[in-house]
Amino acid sequence: MLRSASYLARPRLPLHGSLRHASTQRPVSLVSAKSRSTALLVGLGGTVVVASYFLWPDSSRAAPTKENALLSPTHFTPVTVTSTEPCPDTNTRLMTFTVPQQSIPSLEEAAFEPIWSIYIKDDDIQVERPFTPLDGMDSEGRMKFWVKRYEKGEVGRWLHSKKPGDKIEIRGPLKTWPWREDEWDEVIMISGGTGITPFCQLIHKELLSQPSPNSKTRFTLLHSSRRPTELPPSEMLKPLIDYSQAHPDKLRLSLFVDAPDGSSHPAVPSSSLTVGRIGKAAIERATGSEKRTWWQRVLGLGASTETRVQDSGRGKVMFLVCGPDPMVSAIAGPFGRNFSQGEVGGVLGELGYDGDSVWKL
Questions:
Q1: Does residue 63 fall inside a structural domain?
Q2: With contact defined as beta carbons under 8 Å apart, do 176 and 116 qualify?
Q3: Where is FAD bound in this sequence (predicted)?
């Protein structure tokens, strides 16, 4: 769940000004023929303005479709839906799309360094949205996605209607966050709902896909869903659980649910879940920053960033936050204008972290 804009914003046109002017003239019985003609022209003009708002061309929509060119952000590429699988949460599906052989670019390109996404276009209404491949792309051009159907999510609902063999159009890859090897001693990922997808991609690339990971960075994932069945499906969660248990020095995983309602998750026993939302206490545990002097505890003060780093022995920490807007705001403060990063607020701001240590996806 990335915070990328879809199509470029259409121009703000004066949809109502002329129509409002026409409706506040003298009573119809007193309007001259000339006035009636003017009103008609104004009304027609208003109709044209409304139509132009919905049909106004923009650069994304005008991007060409190329069948025999390498996958690129500059044009759309037709790909095939090769599988679509139901999940415990009936509003989500695991879907695999396959890029044709002639369109598969070199996977060594910098754009494929995690975290990256693609845009998928809904051909019916000409709207695109960003989606993150869970495991990146393999040598056969396959990409797997966890797609949620939201009530007001046009593209997600459209994708849920697709069957194996159907064609869709995508463009990309587009880098979402500039990962740099060994830049951080620890990366702490905090996600909610489908916001876990970029973190699955990062963990897969840096840990799961390598027999002996070279990265010195430690990873911690705190993920939250409303109830157990809305957690990611077993195909996504089990590799993370197994790896965290086998290599706790490389990956730590904590799963949260708002309430333990309904059926249990097939891959996660209820005893392994924390009931409640991800908050200050969970983040302090993840950073090892619970240590405070007696006077700080009495006064309710947190340790400084330097004290936290020294106490935890973890060195430089980067927080990545991805999920629904209310969750992102509570953890790291709201996004800025036009989905810019904005100021760091929320729990992380309260704990003293700033823009050098926090990135909102």
A1: no
A2: yes
A3: 129-130, 148, 155, 197
